[in-house]
Amino acid sequence: MSLQAQKYFKQSENQWAQADSMYWLGNIYYKQQRYKEASEMFSEAQQLFQQIENELGVAECLKRLGDMYQMQDKYDEAIGIISDAQKQFETFGNQLRAAECLQSLGQLYRMQREYDEATEMILKAHKQYEEIGHKQGVADCLSNLGYIYLDQSQYDEAVENFSHAERQYQSIGRIVDVAWSNSMIWLGEIYYKQNRDKEASEMISEAQQLFQQIENELGVAEFLQLQMLADIYRMQGRYDEAVRMISDAQKQFETFGDQLRAAECLRSLGHPYRMQEKYDEATEMTVKAQKQYEEIGYKQGVADCLRNLGDIYENQAQYVEAIDMFSMAQSQYQSIGRIVDAAWSYEYLGSTHRPQGQYGKAKEAFTEALELFKGFPGEKYYIGWTLLEFGHLFFDMEEFAEARRKYEQARDVFDSHGQLQKEVDECSEALAKLDEAEPTASISI
Predict the structure, then answer these.
(1) pTM of the model
(2) CB of 267 closer than 8 Å to CB of 284
(3) Which CATH superfamily is domain 298-370 in?
(4) Which pLDDT does position 327 carry in this prediction?
(5) How many whole angstroms separate alpha carbon 339 and alpha carbon 322?
(6) N or C: which end of the chain has fewer CB within 10 A?
(7) Which DSSP string corresponds to 217-268?
(8) Tens digit of pLDDT for each residue in 112-140?
(9) Using one digit for the tens of pLDDT, what is the confidence trace for 344-379?
(10) CB 46 within 8 A of CB 27
(11) Please, are residues 264 and 298 in contact by the beta-carbon 8 Å criterion?
(12) Residue 129: in which H helix or E strand, if any?
């Protein structure tokens, strides 16, 4: 939109038309990821709607401003503003928009790992969608619940919700095939994690067939499909095909001017390259992604890239560089309130210090991780792994009593989850190895 058009809108005597035009101009900037300009337009539109007492217009602007804060990793501000918008939509009886706000709130709480609050919001949205007969909203909520359970490694509940979402999407028809197939992919990934290979293969095959059916029909959405199809190839170890698919999607997103998704593709490319031990290519893609995230101000993406670079360096035993990356990732995550990710970065630091014999620094990092996890007792998978790695550290230090304590704590945490038997078994193996080591240590003394 030209500066001349903006000037015209601001000089218009019709305040409603002026506010409405600014709102839609804000939407254009938002889609172009020009968040500063979008925020200015939405704020000005909100003020004008307030002046003419158009509270519905105010609510629409609030919702969009909340979306803006979310994109800038300002989750607390986003929650506050979208909550205000939701109340206004409720007041005016606009159940659809109120439900959409509840769904957004659920996604925001999930990003902050506040899973009880996330579940509460999504269930409320689900109920409202059901009341107004909005089937896609119902299906989206089921998918969101699946993600919430998946984040907590509660696979049975995740499978149940993704399965319900899949059936719901299927009943609606082709308009939501994108979301339907996405649920199928997550189901396949969960089945792989549960070692249910036959069911995983069947689900992945169904998703592949669906992609082939809708190829070239969905415009931009097609390239979202390419990303998801690449995930299938990645899970199957077909890395060359995954690279080709993600590269195609990345080029198209660049063409469409969608920097965020283009950056996501670049970061995704780093994974198959790393798995193939093509570390130069993995580094190049991840650094490019980091640069694009920095340009659009997406701090979480920057932190994710730093952690990925740490993985790449660690795989090459370049521990000094890995520690630098994990340290920067930890600081970045903590600065934007991603506390669980910050804690997990400390775990990475501990695991990187350990093979270098830097036991004091490793112990400090694991301790910091567990301290942060105290605020998130539901993160049993991450807490259990941190305790297990801490136990390995004490084993290396031949502090066997403390190693046993950490292994037993890890085993109990995994066991209390109810769906992490593989991890429970790993703790039992560590304890068995410890039983063998202790008599040997006693004899040598």
Answers:
(1) 0.77
(2) no
(3) Tetratricopeptide repeat domain (1.25.40.10)
(4) 98
(5) 20
(6) C
(7) SSTHHHHHHHHHHHHHHHHTT-HHHHHHHHHHHHHHHHHHT-HHHHHHHHHH
(8) 889 999 999 999 999 999 999 999 899 99
(9) 999 999 999 999 999 999 999 999 999 999 999 989
(10) no
(11) no
(12) helix 115-132
d(Cα 324, Cα 436) in Å, to the nearest integer? 36
Q: Which residue in this structure is represented by tokens 């560590």?
A: 430
Q: Give, for 138, the enclosing helix (H) or strand (E).
A: helix 135-151
* Structural contact between residues 354 and 396, judged by C-beta atoms closer than 8 angstroms: yes
Query: CA angle, corner 36, sides to 341 and 96, nearest 5?
Result: 75
pLDDT in tens, 9-61: 555 557 778 888 888 888 888 887 788 888 889 999 989 988 888 888 899 99
User: At a CB cut-off of 8 Å and minimum separation 6, what does 248 contact?
Assistant: 223, 226
Amino acid at 409: Q
The pLDDT of residue 185 is above 90:
no
CA distances (Å), 164 to each of 229, 319, 348, in order?
Answer: 21, 45, 36
DSSP labels for 405-421? HHHHHHHHHHHHHSS-H
Residues 391 and 406 sit within 8 Å (Cβ to Cβ): yes
Task: Give dist(CA 354, CA 345) in Å, integer.
Answer: 14
Closest to 68 (Cα-Cα) out of 17, 10, 125, 26: 26
Could you tell me the residue ranges of all domains in the chain? 221-289, 298-370, 377-445
Q: 221-289: what fold?
A: 1.25.40
Annotate 160-208 with DSSP letters as a single string: HHHHHHHHHHHHH-GGGHHHHHHHHHHHHHHHHHTT-HHHHHHHHHHHH
Residues 346/364, Cβ–Cβ less than 8 Å: no
Closest CA to 70 of 261, 268, 298: 298
Q: pLDDT band for 305, please (50, 70, 90 cuts).
A: very high
Q: Please, which residues have CB within 8 angstroms of residue 58's CB and are 6 or more apart in sequence? A: 46, 49, 50, 88
DSSP codes joined into one string, 286-318: HHHHHHHHHHHT-HHHHHHHHHHHHHHHHHTT-
